[in-house]
Amino acid sequence: MKLFHGSYSSIAPVIKIGANAMSGDNLFDGLFASADREIADSHGGLENSIHCYEVSNIAESSDLNARIDEVIAFLYTEIEAESDVLEALAYAIADDEETDEFNDVLSPRSFADHQGAFSWELQRLRGRVAAHLGFDAVEMSDEHGISYLIVNPKITAR
Fold this sequence. Notes:
Largest sheet: 4 strands, mixed
Number of domains: 1
Oligomer: single chain
Order of helices and strands: EEHEEHHHHEE
Number of helices: 5
Radius of gyration: 15 Å
Helix content: 25-40%
Distance between the termini: 12 Å
Strand order of the largest sheet: 2-6-5-4
Structural class: alpha+beta
C-alpha cells in the first residue's frame, strides 16, 4: 500500500524508536501516514514535503485481537499495573479505543494537552504492539478517518 506523510521539510523523515530518537518529541515511535495524498498535504504544505512510503504488512484491530495474549505479554514489559488492568488495556489498544480509563498507569511523552497526551500514548502503544507482533504499520482511527502508523524503521521514503 502506498502511504503519504506530510512534513514541513523536503527531507523525508526516517523512523527511529525512542523518546528522543527523532527531531523534536518522538511521541509515537513511528510515522503517521495516509493513503490519501491530500490529507498528508494538510500536515505539510511545502513544495516537495509529501513523502511516499510503500508498506505491505499492516495490522488491523482484528489482527491484534487474534493475538491478544501476545499483546498482554508485551504490555507487561512496558507498563507497571495489575494483571486485570493490563488485560483491559490490551483490549482497548487492540480495539483502537480512545479512553481515559488507563491514565493512572500510562506515562505519556507529551505534556501538551493533558487528555491529548494520554490519547497519543495509547496510539504509541498500539504501534509498539504492532511492531512487536511483526507488522510494519498499524491502522488507526483519527480525525481523518483511517490513518496508518508506520513502525518499521527499515521502511524509508521512495
